[in-house]
Write a structure and sequence with these properties.
α1 packs antiparallel against α2 and α6 crosses α16. The chain has an eight-stranded mixed β-barrel with strand order 1-2-4-5-6-7-8-9. The chain is built from 16 helices and ten strands. β2 and β3 form a beta hairpin. The longest helix is centred in the N-terminal third of the chain and has 107 residues. The chain is elongated. About 25% of the residues are buried. About 55% of the residues lie in helices and about 10% in strands. It is of the alpha/beta class.
Length: about 475
C-alpha cells in the first residue's frame, strides 16, 4: 500500500512539473530547453518538499509510538507496584498465620510428649506384669491335687522344641464337617470329587450382578455345586481346595465352561446385553489339554463379548510365563477377564487392562475397610475412579443389606452382587439340554469331548455333555 501511494505521488509531481514547463513554453515564450529546466526544477522542488514532509510525518509517528510505550511502561510500573504491595500484605498474613499455628501447636506438642511418657510408663508396667506372670508360671505347683492334662504340657513343649522355619501352607478346610463327606479322609474326599466330576454331578447355579442404584440385572456369575452321593449339594468353597490338591481343577473348569457356553447362548436369545462370569483356575491355563480348550473357545468366539473368565487375585499374582501366554491366547479371541476374591486393593490397573481384564470384584467390607487392614495405598473411595481410568469396572460383592448399598453409592460403584439382590439359583434343566436332532458324530469330533472325564464311559450322566459340545461347535 505504501509503495502504491509513493508511485502515485511521483506521477502527480511529474505531471505538475511537465504542465508547468508546457505552460511557460506556450505562454511566456520560453524555449524548449528553458521550459525543460523549469519543469526539472519544479520536479526537484516538489521531491524535496515531499521528502521533508514524509520525514516529519515519520518523526511524528515515532514520537506518538514512544509516547504510547511510555504510557504502557508507566501502567506496567503501577501494576508491578500494586502486585508488590499485595505480595507484602500476603507475606505478612502468612507470617501471622504461621505464628498463630505455632502458638496453637506448642500446647499440643507438650500434651503429645506427655502422652508419650505415659505410654512408655504403661509399656514398662505391662512388661513388669509379664515378667511376674512368667515367674509365677515357672514356680512348681504346690498342690498335688492339680495335675495339668498331657496335651496342655505336650503342645508347648513341641512348639519350643520345633526349629524355626517357614510357615507351612494352610491345610484344606475340614470337610469332615460337611455331612456329604463325613468320615472321609483327604484321599477319600478327592476320590469323591473326582467321581462327581466324572459323573457330571456338578450343578450350575447363577447369581445376578445388578447395576446400582437401578438394580437391573446386567451379568450373572456361574457357581459350581457338587452333588454328593447322598444327594446333598456342596458349595464350591467346601471342595475347591481338595480339587486343587488332587489336580482336578482342569476337568472341573472344562465342565463348567461347557455348561456356561450353553447358558450364555440361551441368555443371548432373550437379551443381547447380558453377560456371564465363569470361574477358571490357573491350573487350566497350564494343563496339557489347554490347546483343545483353546480350540473350543476359538470355535465359540462369537459369544466372547458375553463370557467373562474370572480368576482369583492370588491366581493372577502367581501367573508365570505359561499362564500369561494362555491368558493372551484367550484375549486374542475376544474374551475378557475378571479378578475376584480380593484380599487387598493393591492392584495395578494399567497392567490388568493390558492383559485383558475388564472387571474387578471386591467385597463391600474390603471397600469400607471394615476388616481393619491397610488394604491399599489410596483411599477406597477413589478405587473405582482408579479402575475406571483404565477401562475396568468395579463390582462390589457380598452385599447383604440396604445400608451397604447406600454406602456404596458414595464410592461410585456401578455394579453389585450379593444375597440382598438374589441368592444363587440353579439353572433350569432345559437350559442345559442340547438339541435332540444333533448327530452323535459331532460330539466325537469336538475338541473338548476328550477333556471331560467320563463322557464316553457314562453318556447318560446328565445326558448333555456331547450335546453341549455340539452346541458350542456347530452354532458359532
Amino acid at each position: 500500500m505504501v509503495r502504491i501511494s509513493a508511485i502515485f505521488i511521483a506521477v502527480c509531481m511529474a505531471l505538475i512539473a511537465g504542465s508547468l514547463g508546457f505552460v511557460v513554453y506556450l505562454r511566456f515564450g520560453f524555449t524548449g530547453a528553458e521550459s525543460a529546466l523549469v519543469a526539472l526544477g519544479t520536479l526537484t522542488a516538489l521531491a524535496v518538499y515531499n521528502a521533508i514532509a514524509a520525514r516529519k510525518r515519520d518523526r511524528q509517528e515515532a514520537s506518538n509510538q514512544l509516547a504510547t510505550l511510555a504510557r504502557g511502561s508507566g501502567d506496567l510500573a503501577r501494576q508491578l507496584a500494586e502486585f508488590g504491595r499485595r505480595l507484602s500484605g500476603m507475606e505478612a498474613k502468612v507470617e501471622s498465620v504461621i505464628d498463630r499455628a505455632l502458638a496453637t501447636a506448642q500446647p499440643l506438642a507438650a500434651e503429645i510428649e506427655e502422652l508419650s511418657t505415659l505410654v512408655k510408663q504403661l509399656a514398662d508396667s505391662v512388661a513388669a506384669h509379664e515378667m511376674a506372670l512368667t515367674s509365677e508360671r515357672a514356680l512348681p505347683v504346690a498342690s498335688a491335687e492339680f495335675v495339668p492334662p498331657p496335651a496342655a504340657v505336650a503342645v508347648p513343649a513341641a512348639v519350643a522344641a520345633a526349629p524355626p522355619g517357614p510357615t507351612p501352607p494352610a491345610a484344606p478346610p475340614p470337610l469332615s464337617k460337611v455331612a456329604a463327606f463325613a468320615g472321609l479322609d483327604r484321599d477319600g474326599i478327592i476320590a469323591a470329587i473326582r467321581s462327581a466330576i466324572d459323573g457330571s454331578k456338578i450343578e450350575l447355579y447363577l447369581q445376578p450382578v445388578v447395576t446400582l442404584p437401578q438394580r437391573k440385572v446386567r451379568y450373572y456369575e456361574a457357581l459350581s455345586r457338587l452333588k454328593a452321593e447322598n444327594g446333598d449339594l456342596v458349595v464350591a468353597g467346601d471342595f475347591l481346595a481338595y480339587a486343587e490338591a488332587g489336580a482336578l481343577m482342569p476337568g472341573l473348569d472344562n465342565l463348567s465352561v461347557l455348561r456356561s457356553v450353553q447358558v450364555v447362548r440361551r441368555l443371548l436369545l432373550k437379551n443381547r446385553d447380558i453377560g456371564l462370569f465363569c470361574n477358571l483356575s490357573g491350573a487350566t491355563l497350564t494343563d496339557s489339554g489347554f490347546p483343545k480348550f483353546l480350540e473350543f473357545m476359538d470355535a465359540n468366539r462369537a459369544i466372547a463379548p458375553a463370557l467373562v473368565f474370572e480368576f482369583t487375585q492370588s491366581a493372577v499374582r502367581a501367573m508365570g510365563p505359561i499362564e500369561q501366554e494362555g491368558l493372551a491366547a484367550l484375549a486374542e479371541r475376544g474374551f475378557r477377564f475378571s479378578v475376584d476374591n480380593l484380599s487387598d486393593l493393591r492392584v495395578d490397573a494399567r497392567e490388568l487392562n493390558e492383559r485383558g481384564f475388564r472387571f474387578v470384584k471386591a467385597p463391600a467390607t474390603l471397600l469400607f475397610n471394615r476388616l481393619g487392614v491397610a488394604s491399599t495405598d489410596i483411599h477406597p473411595a477413589d478405587f473405582s475412579d482408579l479402575l475406571g481410568r483404565f477401562g475396568i469396572d468395579l463390582i462390589a460383592e457380598r452385599i447383604e443389606n440396604e445400608a451397604t448399598v447406600v454406602d456404596l453409592l458414595d464410592y461410585d460403584v456401578r455394579f453389585g452382587q450379593g444375597f440382598l439382590f438374589s441368592p444363587p439359583r440353579p439353572v433350569r434343566a432345559e437350559a442345559l439340554q442340547g438339541l435332540a436332532g444333533d448327530s452323535k458324530e459331532a460330539g466325537k469330533d469336538s475338541p473338548l469331548a476328550a477333556l471331560v472325564p467320563g463322557e464316553a464311559a457314562n453318556p447318560a450322566a446328565g445326558g448333555t455333555l456331547a450335546q453341549l459340545v455340539r452346541a458350542g461347535i456347530g452354532r458359532t
